[in-house]
Amino acid sequence: MTTDTVTGSDYGNLVRTHLTRVEQQNAAALDDVAELVLAAVQADGTILTAGAGHSLAAVAETFYRAGGLACVRPIYHPELLPMHGAISSTAAERRSGLAGEVLREAGLAPHDVLFVFSTSGVNHYPVELAQEAANAGCPVVAVTSVAASAQAPRRAGVTLAEVATVVLDNLVPPGDSTYPEHAPVTAAISTVATAFLWNLLMVRLVDKAAETGVQLPLWRSANVEGGDAANADLLRHYQTRIPQLG
C-alpha cells in the first residue's frame, strides 16, 4: 500500500468521524431548529441566511439549491466576499455597524428565522446580526464552533453562540485546519461540517412536514425535465420579497 493511499484513508476517516460527532451532538438542537423553520414556513415567513468570508459558502448552500427551501433569502454585502478583496473582507467582518445596515435593507419579522454562519463567532458582523434580529423578536440560529469561539479574540464583546436562540455546533477546532491530525496545517473542515448540518436540518424538516401535513416550498433542479415548470409558482410567490431570485 502506498503512502498516498494511507494518507488519503486517514483523512477520510478523520472527516467521517468528525461528521458523526456533529450529527450526534446536535441531534436535539436540530429538532428545535426544524420546529422553528417549520413554523416560519407555515406563517409564510422568510428564512434569512447570513455569513461573511468563507461562511458565505454556507449561505450559497442554502439558496436556490435543488431540494432546498424556496423561502430562503441570502443576506450579504459585497465587501464581505473574499473574491472582492481578501483583506478588505476581513476588515468588513470586524467593522461595527455593517450588520445593522444589511438587515435594515433585508427587513425582519418575528415569523422569520435568521441563520448566522460563523465558525469563529466573535467578529462584529455575525454577532451584531444576531443581536439586531433578537431585538426585532426574530429567532436566531447560530451555526458556529463553540470551541473556536472560546479561543478567538472577543472583538464584539460576546460570541455569536451567546446571543443566539439556538446553537448548531459544527465542532470545528480553533484554526479550522484538520490535517495532519496531531499538527494540523491544512484541510479546513468548516465548510464540510456546516453544509452537513444544513442538510441534516433539511432531512428533519422534510420528515416533520410529512408528519404534520405541511407542504414545503422546495426547489427542483432546473436541469431535469419539468424543473423549470415546477419552480415557476415558487418564483412568482417569493420573487417580490427575495430580490436575489431575479
TrEMBL record:
Native organism:
Lentzea alba
* PROSITE patterns hit by this protein: SIS
A GO term for molecular function: carbohydrate derivative binding
Per the UniProt record, the lineage of the source organism begins with:
Bacteria, Bacillati, Actinomycetota, Actinomycetes, Pseudonocardiales
Q: Which GO terms describe its biological process?
A: carbohydrate derivative metabolic process
- Cross-referenced Pfam families: SIS_2 (PF13580)
Domain SIS span(s) in chain numbering: 33-211
User: Would you tell me the protein name for this molecule?
Assistant: SIS domain-containing protein
